[in-house]
Amino acid sequence: MEKNYYLGFDAGTQSVKVAVYDGQMNCVAMDTAKTTLSYPQPGWVEMDIDEYYRLIKQCMRSCSYQMRQKHLSVKSVRAIMGDGIICGIAGIDAAGNPVTPYVNYLDSRTADDVERLKAQGLRIWAEETGNAEPSVMFPAMFARWFLKHVPAFAAKGVKFVHNCPYVLLHLAGLGGNDAFIDWGTLSGWGLGYHVMQKEWSPRQLEILGIDAAYLPRIVKPWDIIGSLCEKDAEETGFPAGIPICAGAGDTMESMMGSGILEAGRGVDVAGTCAMFCVSTDGIIPALSVPGSGLIFNSGTLENTYFYWGFVRTGGLALRWFKDSVCRKQSDEYYGTLDELARRHPAGCDGAFFIPYLTGGNGDYPDVRGVFSGLTLDSDQGAMWRCVLEGIGYNYLEITERYRNAGIDLSQLTVTEGGSRDALWNQIKADMLATEVVTLEVAGGAVPTNCLVAAYSQGDVTDLKEALQTNFIVKDTFSPQQSVTDYYQQQYGRRKKLLEALQESGI
């Protein structure tokens, strides 16, 4: 008897990933492709949302070919489910084609607008969204910018969409007015919605100056929005008519895939934007305050919520160092860098790296990327350790906020690409004074997408139970007290360095 299969994809910042899993969550086909980021002005980061659609189809075709090579029936793929970036949007026309660039969380063009909105001191943001103030990361701010600065959207635009719904919309052969957003990715807007009611907020939209007609309809992640169209079936090698789920946010899927289904658990989504999440029962007033630097979202599952702090260029800083400083394109070089870094002690003899490569944040908005304290003994390995530790100190800032709010962080689950780096995981354990665990299935979002696809077809009846079955710990990293104490000392020195850099405007 032929098995059932499910196709999932992740539309990330640096790459896309497509995979096919069977009902026992064994991966039977997989392919990836790198995306393109452009930097038209300082602080601006743009992408072509249509590139996501093209790359997903390219990887789907590779997966259908792999299945045929293994004599697996592509006709047994039961559903398609994807995830994408929660803080990023583009504007589309009635045909579903982009009329703006795709702008995401790496971009800072809305900084002045954010400050103007912050100055109003409105309480409605925290009350309805859990986010106490606007941020340059929020799609709500990008929408305001598009409405003011992109004449093509004013002339032809009909909807704002995230990158995953854009891909799914086109795979199903739908138009711009059919645009949708799932209730978790909805909270990626940051502003403009009521997080507990899972609906757009008329009061907030009026303040933001965003016409509700431009906003996609809200659906559940497992809702079926259409089926694979004839054109894309021919192009990808999968049969037309495969049901397509509404999709989800990448962070939400990574949280679920890490077994975080109840309050009080922590997850490090170690991707391009390093995201440090803790699950809660709802809004915690002590964390939903101006200046916290935290963002509040709803999860894929109903009645699940979480806060997350972030290092916008966390994973991107690692890629930058490998590609631009070491001038090595192969990802295998990360292993070489780890070997070199192990030759240097924790703290790198007082050297630091400040990872603000796309601009500062929080108390240090004017600070940029900096290496400090290097000596003639500082080779590639020392600098690489500085990069890892530099991101780790940002994690430590976030950890302090969580613990001050009474959240226990005795264990942290690491998922996505960064989970494969043992040195990086040990640094986090030592810095945060917590046990770090990785999972047997470290793909995070994609296998979780396939479980949701199975749930959409009734092949999985209890999604929580299925998720917990697949939650298997692979490696555990315990903190070393002497190293933790040393990092705490360095953390104080780093704060003084940041204060000096902010004061000097460097």
UniProtKB/TrEMBL annotation:
Residues 5-257 form the Carbohydrate kinase FGGY N-terminal domain. Residues 270-446 form the Carbohydrate kinase FGGY C-terminal domain. It comes from the Bacteria. GO terms for biological process: carbohydrate metabolic process. The keyword Transferase applies. The keyword Cell membrane does not apply. Keywords: Kinase, Transferase. GO terms for molecular function: kinase activity. Belongs to the FGGY kinase family. This is Carbohydrate kinase, FGGY family protein. It comes from Megasphaera vaginalis.
